[in-house]
Amino acid sequence: MGARVISGINGMIGRVQVSPDGKWIALTPPQPSGKGIPWTPTIELHDLDGRLVRSVDVPTPNWAWMPDSSGIFVALDVPQRPASLGVLDIAGGAPRATGMMMARQTLSRDGRWIVAEHAEGCCASVTTPQIRIAPRSGGDAMTLVAARSDSMGLSLLGIDSADRVVYGDGGQILRVPVTGGTPQALGTIAEYKTTLPGNPSPDGTVVLVRGYEPLRWYVIANDRVTQWADGAGAIVDDFQGERLLFGTAARWIGPHALLVRAPSGDLSSFDVLTGAATATKARLGTGDLALAYDHGRLLVARDRSTLVIDLATGRESDAAVNAMDVDGARASRAFALPAGGFILSTLTSTYRID
Fold first, then answer.
1. Is residue 159 classed as helix, strand or coil in its secondary structure?
2. Which residues contact residue 169 at a Cβ distance below 8 angstroms, ignoring those fewer than 6 apart?
3. Rounded to whole angstroms, how far apart are CA atoms 335 and 19?
4. DSSP string spanning 211-253?
5. Whole-angstrom Cα distance, residue 164 to residue 204?
6. pLDDT tens across 274-308, in order?
7. What confidence tens digit (pLDDT) does each residue in 249-266 have?
């Protein structure tokens, strides 16, 4: 077990993000301190050794990787509602407008369509009357779904395995092919106004929805909507709900299996489609934070240490990284690399953990 600082990349938490394919590290250098200092935000692309490959000026420091790693979603402005959505292609060029908004934006599984909510209004009066799509290759945005009644209740939840858009309209959960068609009703969620963005499984066969008033999960799978059964265990999510209002994601450890925690702290793999649970040899303590999962291993922040826990054996290895520097592990971000290993970014440094 070893960890090394990736030279040339400072922590700058929240702005260091690894591409989903594990080939790139993108970051935005911080704005210089002091009044009157001119600053143009940039996105720097580094390889996994920290070597700078490309730097591009962008309109704002608000951005996120596209799910297929072919580009980066970029906010083109800073309005008092969701920003205009641009795309920065990894192949080169400047950010280009899509005619969409940066609101729960995602990409169809075939990579052909950008899907996002469309907002209207301003400030506390923002509504979401539409979900729109636009060609990934460029072209005009089109309305895919329009709210039937309550424009505050339309929400994009995810793209499923058959490239169907799963969304909420009022309390009803529906899905429709990304290319359009007649929506299919799947079920209802009563407290739809207090739910967070959807969380699709890696294979798209399951979409989870997190409610925060009350605090509970819903499962969209097998053509229906059900409430998560507490008896199955507590879903282990990113930081266990510490950043709940900013969105939360389950710790998926298989195509449609996630990690659940018993009251004792013991961990199991839970197949959401079949309901089958498989015990592991690992456990989490009360204050442990599950940072990332990689090929049977879980990266965990515990007190002032960062551990790698083998789920099959329960063996815990110290990565020799202090994830609690400055503002603590809750300010850290971790990413699992598809080929193995982790990238951990704290406020002060970015590390490669093998």
1. strand
2. 145, 147, 148, 150, 153, 154
3. 9
4. EETTEEEEEEETTEEEEPPGGG-EEPBGGGGTTGGG---B-B-
5. 10
6. 999 999 999 999 888 898 999 999 999 888 789 99
7. 899 999 999 999 999 999
* DSSP 8-class letter at 192: G
At a CB cut-off of 8 Å and minimum separation 6, what does 257 contact? Answer: 269, 270, 271, 272
CA 88 – CA 65 distance, rounded (Å): 9
Give the count of alpha carbons within 13 A of 225, CB side only: 23
| Average pLDDT for 127-148 | 93
**Residue 143 has what DSSP assignment?**
E
pLDDT over 70 (residue 324):
no
Q: Structure pTM?
A: 0.91
Contacts of 105 (CB under 8 A, 6+ apart): 64, 73, 85, 114, 115, 116, 117
Per DSSP, the chain holds a count of helices (H) and strands (E) of 0, 32
User: Tokens 């009563």 identify what position?
Assistant: 190
Instruction: Collapse the DSSP code of 194 into the 3-class scheme (helix H, G, I; strand E, B; otherwise coil) and give the result.
Output: helix
Q: Residue 352 corresponds to which tokens in the numbers above?
A: 């490669």
Cβ neighbourhood burial of 346 (10 Å; 0-12, 13-18, 19+): buried
d(CA 256, CA 258): 7
Cβ(93)–Cβ(84) under 8 Å? no
**What whole-number distance in Å separates Cα of residue 164 and Cα of residue 145?**
12
Out of 130-134, 147-151, 187-191, 284-288, least confident range: 147-151
Burial class (CB in 10 A: 0-12, 13-18, 19+), 181: exposed
